[in-house]
Amino acid sequence: MLNKKLGVGFVAKRCGVNVSTLHFYEQKGLIYSNRNQGNQRRYKPDVIRRVAIIKAAQKLGIGLTDIKRAFSVLPDKATPNKQQWAAMSASWQQTLNDKISYMQRLRDSLDGCIGCGCLSMQSCPIYNPEDILASKGPGPVILDASP
C-alpha cells in the first residue's frame, strides 16, 4: 500500500471527514496530493496518519496555524515518526495547560455563581454593570485573569 495512490473519496471515508475538509486542509498546506491524468487528486497512504494527527490536535484545541507550524519542521512534507510526534506534542503541552487552567477558572466562576442559588446579577462574580471592565481590555477580563 506504500506506493498506492488513494482517491479523495477513499481518504475522506477512511479518515471520517468530508471531502471538502480534505480540500480545506490541502488549501491550508496541511496535507498534499498529486493529480492524475484526469486531474483528480491522489494521496499517498501516509496522508491518513497526517489527517489523524490534525483531528487529534484539533480535539485538543490546537489551531490549524499551530498544527501547520509543527508540520513545517518535518522533512519533505512527511508524516511524523514517533520521535517527531513526541516533539510536536511536547510543544503543545503549555498551550494545553493554559487552556485547562482557563477552563478550570471558568468552571469555578460559573459554579460559584450558580451554586449560590440567588441568580442575582448584583452578586455574580462575572457581572459587569455599565461595562466598567472595558478599561481593562477586551473580552472576559475577569475569567482571563490569571490567579
Briefly characterize the structure:
This protein has 147 residues and is mainly α. The protein contains seven helices and three strands, in the order βααββααααα.
Structure explained in plain terms:
The mean pLDDT is 82. The chain has 147 residues and is mainly alpha-helical. The chain has a 3-stranded antiparallel β-sheet. It has helices at residues 8-15, 19-27, 47-59, 64-71, 82-91, 93-115, 141-144; strands at 6-7, 34-35, 41-43.
**What's the β-strand tally?**
3
Average pLDDT:
82
Q: List unreliable stretches of 5+ residues.
A: none
* Largest beta sheet: strand ordering: 1-3-2
Give the N-to-C terminal Cα separation. 52 Å
Helical percent range?
A: 40-55%
**Number of helices, where a helix is a run of at least 4 consecutive DSSP H or I residues:** 7
Topology as H/E string?
Answer: EHHEEHHHHH
Q: Biggest sheet: strands, sense, closure?
A: 3 strands, antiparallel
Radius of gyration: 22 Å
What is the general shape? elongated
Pairing-aware structural class of the strands and helices? mainly alpha
Strand content: under 5%
